[in-house]
């Protein structure tokens, strides 16, 4: 059975087999959590992403984690939907991000994974709705992953994710 926990912290310092980055389609790095992960992993991550991408919204792809410390084996890149009001398939695409990341983690043999709040930054997805989708999808997706950590970068994100986890 998968255990889901919410943590306030920095995803780049997580001790999991894989961490997820909320990537752009190029997989070559961006801003926000993606930029932080790319800076921590080193320039090899962007080169590996460029060789692998592009990645469509709702999909996920893995690369080595390179220089991340503490050591992480894999970075799973997923491209969230850009919020356009909710009537353009955004909820389905966001749920697909979480499902696909778990599928990729299973293919890699990862037993633990850390997720940021996907698409809630520059892509503008409403944080409350995103938290609900994240928790529901992670709880309802069959996986061999034993530990899922939802990493909140601030108190407001933590409160939303922890509230959803307690409510579902």
UniProtKB/TrEMBL annotation:
<protein>
    <submittedName>
        <fullName>Macro domain-containing protein</fullName>
    </submittedName>
</protein>
<dbReference type="Pfam" id="PF01661">
    <property type="entry name" value="Macro"/>
</dbReference>
<feature type="domain" description="Macro">
    <location>
        <begin position="1"/>
        <end position="168"/>
    </location>
</feature>
<dbReference type="InterPro" id="IPR043472">
    <property type="entry name" value="Macro_dom-like"/>
</dbReference>
<dbReference type="InterPro" id="IPR002589">
    <property type="entry name" value="Macro_dom"/>
</dbReference>
